[in-house]
Structure formats: C-alpha cells, structure tokens
Amino acid sequence: MKILLRIGTVFFSILFLYSCNNRNTKKDKEKDASWIKQYQTNLVLGPDSASVQKFIESVKPERAKLVQEIEKEYPGMYNKYIAEGERLKSLKAKDELKTAFAELNKKYAESFKKAFDKSGVETSLKQKTNNWITANIKENEDWDITISDLGNFTIAAYVRSNNKQASQNVPHIRMHRQNEGGGGGGEPLGHRQDALGDPDPSDSIFTLNCPFNVQTMVAGCFAFGGDLSSVGNCDVGVTFDAFIMGGCADKASLGTNLNLPAKFSNVTSTFNCNVDLNASAGALGGGAYSEASVGIKIDEGGIIKVNREEFKISAIAPLIFGVEASLSLRNRNFTASYNKGSFAVIPTPSIWVQASGGAGVLAFSHAMSMVSRINSLNINLH
Known about the structure:
The chain is of the alpha+beta class. Helices cover 29% and strands 41% of the residues. Strands 1, 2, 3, 4, 5, 6, 7, 8, 9, 10, 11, 12 and 13 form a 13-stranded mixed β-sheet that branches. A hairpin with a 4-residue loop joins strand 6 and strand 7. Helix 3 packs across helix 5. The chain is elongated, with a radius of gyration of 26 Å. Mean pLDDT is 78; it is low at 1-27, 163-170 and 179-204.
C-alpha cells in the first residue's frame, strides 16, 4: 500500500507538472502573439506635407503684416535680409549651410523680434498654430513641439509606445518655448529615446548582418530642387535642398530577401540601426518646411504587407525666419510583423528613409535622413 501510494503520488506530481508546463506554454504563446500584433499595423506619422502647405498658406496675412512692420521700423533691412539669405543657395555641404543659417538668424533675430512684437500678429498666429496641431496629430503618436519667438516650430513625432499604462488612445503633445538667435532650432530633438519600446524577442530564430543587397530609390524634385540618394550594403540615406518655389520627396530603402519554409505562418523582423535625421527651413519671404523620417516595411513579391513610419521630424517656418531640427538615434530597434500564411514565400524586410519639403517665394528647405549603420536584423518565425 505504501509503495502504491508513493507511485501514485509521483505519477500525480508528474501529471501536475506536465499540466502546469502546458498552461505556461499556452500563456507564453499568447504573450508572444500579443507582442507580435502591435507590430502588424501600418503607421504613417503626422503631419503630412499637404496639411503643412495649407497651414503656411493660411498665415499669409500675418506674414504680410510682419514684413510691413519691419519696413516701418527698419527701412531697407528686410531686403538686405532677403539678399543675404539667397546666397545660401550656393552652400551644398550640410555643415556649411547649418552654420551660415545660424549666423543669418542670429544677425537679424533681435530686430525682427521687436518688429514681431509690435506687429500684433502673435495672437492670431498662435491660434492658427494650435488649431492646426490639434487637427493633425493622430491617436497612435506623440509629438514634441518646440515653438520659437518668431512663430517657427519643430515637431518630433513618435509612435505611441504600446507599453504605456494610461491614455493609450489619447495623443500626447509636449510644448517647449525656444528663443530665436544663435541657431534657430534650439536643442537637438531626441531626448525621448524611450518613446519606443525596444522588444527583445525570446524566440529569435536567426540573426543576419551586413551586407544587405535589396536596394530601392525613389527621387522626385521640381523647380529649384536638388537631391542625393545613397544606398550601400549597410547604410542608406537621402538628402535634398530646395529653393524658391522648389520641392522634393525622396525615399530609399535597404533590406534582404528571406526564403522561408511553409511551416511558419508569421515572420517578425527587427532591424537594429543607427539613425540621423536633420531638417531645416528658411522662410525668407514665403514660408518653408522640411521633413525627415525613418521606418520599416516588409514586402512580399513586390506587395507591401506592412509599413511602419516610426520617427519623423519636421521644421516649419511659416513667416519669414528660419528653424532647424535634428534627431540622432543609436542602437534603435525597428520592428514589423505580418502573417504570411501556411505556404512558402520570400518576404523582404527593409529599413527605409525619407526626406521631403518645399520652399515658397524667396525661401529654402533642406532635409537629410540617414541610417548610418545597420547593426543587425533579427528574424522571428512563428
């Protein structure tokens, strides 16, 4: 009886442990499925170029009133400012343009600020800006906004982190004030490095490293616009400059083909990268804006299955002055996932960069989006 009882106890213990392991495995799978689902949604961050252009057009009355006040207070100064600003067109190197841009802003900031205060446009400009921001931010993103004393502002848009505990569907706006002069853009954006959760999948199947060989480039400029795209084996970047009614929209990507067996129904790809974004806009006489962004996508046979824009910075100069923004990310994860079905396919995960913008009359814009290094690509199959 004691032997039978002991055997029965051991059998029950094994059965209990097996049952617990099954439940834990099921919970783990459910947890994995939940983790995957958040990266299967297409994302496009705001603001879009069309809405920015409409906003710049809407503040024409404020711009005209400000120019009139400058001419009244400082006869001839505005035309001199325009002439000096036009010479920036000859500067192609980013560092040279940035330095000259900062010096131009600093030179005229004090006088323009006094004219701005006397013109009385601040109240209506602020109202139009707030209305535009509220109308264009989306539920799945957060914006960090820096507003200067002359009506310029920069936006750093991020994907809303899914591990935030509260207000999941409420967009969050952080406003900062920045004095003009000495740079026009204030502190480099990017202090919210924790805006995205960096998933570390526990069931990674394999890791790939450079070189990657699937490259794409799409470029388009009009009027006085010029661009440059560069795609290597481990880096990808786009840059553009636009002047006087010019504009550009450039995009490039780098990835690799995966030959996957039929037994896996889901593929999740995570690029770990170093990223640099820069955007500047100089509204010398007609408004200007620029945007730089980075994201991840997965194609299958040329058809995009999932596309996620994860970071985007915008520099918006609606009146007559300049603004600059930058964002640097190191060892940042970019994740996308899709259900491929129970058949053999060749998906192509890629990291992509985009730069776009436009310049009005007597204005310029510049943007750069660069993945300077792909550190790794993790592939998870389920």
